Amino acid sequence: MRKKLIAGNWKMNKTINEALLFVNQLIPLVKDTDAEVVICPTSLCLSDVARAVTNTNIKIGAQNMYYKESGAFTGEISPRSLTEIGIEYVILGHSERRQYFKESNDDVNKKVISALNIGLMPILCVGETLEERASGKAFDIINKQMSECLQGIESLRLDGLVIAYEPIWAIGTGKTATKEDANEIIAYIRKLISEKLGGSIAENIRILYGGSVKSSNIKELMEMSDIDGALVGGASLDSVEFSEIVKY
Ligand code: PEP
Questions:
Q1: Which of 90, 122, 128, 149 is geometrically suited to a Cys-Cys bond with 138, CB 3.0 to 4.6 A?
Q2: pTM score, whole prediction
Q3: How far is CA 24 from CA 8, 10, 65, 212, 231, in A?
């Protein structure tokens, strides 16, 4: 049985003080939930937020990292500095990083390998654009992203790997994929994982849906057979709304 995972991606929102206020509100609201709760603040907030959730059921993820351990890479975030402060997850290949910072599948692949090697659990994002969906290419695009981003990971420890299916046209737009469409692509992702990494990993891996998830649509999405949780952007910025999503 896969444990549901609800992760909040704050993107470039909240200062350290705002982040601390948020977590102090969220802690009591989600303390009895059955789902795994992850929040992904900006990199500058990670350390303070990680300290604030010590001994609670809230886990912390980064929104990005570089694939090298250390070195002359000005402005980048080292995976080792994340594990040192207790960060457990890292979002990789988010469509905003692909679109605005030109991250390729190859870049994402290096980061996935680096994260798995150091013991960070990647939340690997894949998803198609509206044009790709309209021209019937959604499955091909997902197939390409999955195979290129997960190249060469067969021999690594994969227990922590999480995939997030995020159709780009549904992110921050208020448009959600229908629960049937989301489940169909997520089932397809599970089939790809099974072919590449074997049935037991496919059965256990958690695959999330992301794209305009809110407290009003989470329940129907979570009822679908293959959807194991959600990556939530805008609606994760309000502690009460986010707690309602967690407790759907
Ligand atoms: C996201 O940023 O991953 C996301 C799904 O955003 P939103 O929920 O705002 O669509």
A1: 128
A2: 0.97
A3: 15, 16, 26, 25, 21
